[in-house]
Structures are given as C-alpha cells and as structure tokens.
Task: structure prediction
Amino acid sequence: MNAIFSLLLGVVQGLAEFLPISSSGHLALFQSFFGDSLSKLDSVTAFNVLLHLGTLVAVFIVYRLDIMKMIPAFFTMLKKLFGKKPLSEYTYEERMDLMVIIATIPLIFLKLFDILLEKAISFSILDAMEKYITLQPIVVGVILVFNGLLLFYSDKLAARERTFDQFKPRNAFFVGICQMFAVLPGLSRSGSTITGGRLNGLGRPDAVRFSFLLSIPAILGSCVTELPEMFSDNSIGAADWAVFLAATGVACVVGLLSMKLLNYLANKSSFKGFSFYCWAVGALAIVGGIVKLALT
Result:
C-alpha cells in the first residue's frame, strides 16, 4: 500500500471533511487525475472507515463538553417529548439533541430508500452517483462552483440572525435536507448544513456548531454500515494496517486544526475565502476535465 499517498489522503480527509470545500469532491478529483493509486485505496473498506473514524474522533475532542451534556439530556429530552412538553421548556442541550435527530431523518430516509431500491431492482442511486459523477471532473467542478456560491451567499445573511433557542423542528429538517443533497461529490456536507442553518436564521457560530454535531450521526452511520465488510476482508496485512492507522491519525489531527480554523472564522471573519477557493478548484477541474476529454 502506498504509504505517502495514504497519508496524503488522510490530510485531504481531515481538511475537507470539516472545511466547507467538500471532501468527496476533492477525493473525486484525486480519483479522476490519479486514478490508479486512489482506486486501490478506495476499494479497501477498512481504509475509508478508519479515515472517517479519525475525523469523528476530532469532533468528539473539540465538542467533548457539549457531547457530555447532550448524552444525559437525550433521556430527559425523550421524557419531555413523549410528555408533549412545549419546546420552551427544553434546555439548550435537549433542544440540540432533538434538532440533531430531526436533521438526520432526511439522510436516513435516503439511505433506506437506496437500500430498498437496490433490493427491488438492483439499482443503487448512491452507487450510480459514485460511478458516473465521481469520475467526471467537469461535473464535480461545476458542483464545486455551486458550493462556493452557497458559501458566498450564506455570508450575506447576518441581518436575519437569531439564537439557537429560536430554532424550530422545521428549521432542523430543512438543514437535514441540505445535508441529504451533500452526497453529491463537490457539494460540501459542512458547507450545505452551515448554509442551511444560516438560511434559517442561525448566526455563523451556532450554524457551525450545529453542523459539526450533526456530523456525528452522519459519519458514525456511514462507518457502521461498512463495518461488516471491513471485518470480513482478510486481504489486509499488518503493514497495511500500520499505514491505515497512521493515515487515521493524520486525518484526526488535521481535522482538529480544520475545526479550530472554521470556528475561529465563524466568530472573527467570514467564509468568503472558501468561496474563492471552491471557485478556483472548480474552474481548474472543469479545464482539466476538458483537457482530459480532448486527450482521450
């Protein structure tokens, strides 16, 4: 297994999983232009699972205090929910638990629908998307440009800001729909959910916090569904596991730095720099895709 390339992908995963620049889009472009090296790694489920677990650990580290409060609040939230208590009686952590659950529903629906569709007619929307979009740098480039437009627009919504205490279930569901569409390579999950939060009136810091906490069930669910395949793979040697774990550590450390940077920008600056970056990479991907087509 190519150790240098594995560590590089760990850096890409850590940066692009949390910064609103699309990890799937960057990995898709890597696969388009460096296909042979990446395809070998991309076919190893353990590598993908461990990279995502690395970024998940980063979320737990940064938001450990929030998560420690949200765990017991989950049970009191359920009690109030089944007791039909009004949202005004929910604590901040109970409301966060409820909103994360509601925002995760669209993604669960998409996954279940895809599983049922595959069982019924042997067709997977997500697999088809990966097959036909991932290897099309022009399409990924266009989506990255659109992602940049979303981020640019989200910075114009300061006049509508309100606190998380005013965030309602319908607002959380809208953010969940934004997350569902982020399965498209080039459309950032964090960028989509942050923009969704901003469109529903959240201030930038609250939108970022909600997006990161919402990533926990999304990343965890993705890992859990792949665990059976991961443990059934007997082709991975001890040297491969060493490389995988090193790349996981890199993804975790870079993810921590990415989250710190995004939190800093949410409080002190803006996301316009990410917009320009997405436009630049998107434009390069489109030009590179055209050149690639011309040469084939």
